[in-house]
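In this supplementary section we document a worked example of the pipeline. Step one takes a protein sequence of length 140 as its only input; no multiple sequence alignment statistics are reported here. Step two produces a three-dimensional model, which step three serialises into structure tokens for compact storage. The input and output of this example are shown verbatim.
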Amino acid sequence: MTVVAQRVGRAAVAIAKVLLPRSHSCYSLRVALRVDWDEGAREELRRLPAAERLAVMNAAAKLEAFGDRLGAPHTSQVKGSRGGIRELRPRSGRCPWRVLYRRVGGAMVMLAVGPEAEHDQRGFDRAVRLAEERLKEIKG
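The serialised model returned by step three reads:
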């Protein structure tokens, strides 16, 4: 669920709460992008505690809004990833969870949800492997 807000002066005023569908569009200056969730990543997201799930969805909404232009501290390249996987970092990196994603054509595809590397390196590495496997399946 995302809150759609409008700026009035310096304050943001909430307009509506919106459920994020399986796929939704965002617009960069050059190209329209979709944010899609791999079914395995959606299941991993469902297993997170409610507060962490909300933080992840807020970060996904930022990716939806800014697309390729979203930068640090919200996203970064995963070191050692052979598939060009990026990590989305909820709460500007202060969340113990990461969403691993990659741009595929005109879509940002959320491939896996895993723990932050400093908290659980083995779990993070496992999530990267899953993301790379799912990416191979998508690319065929």
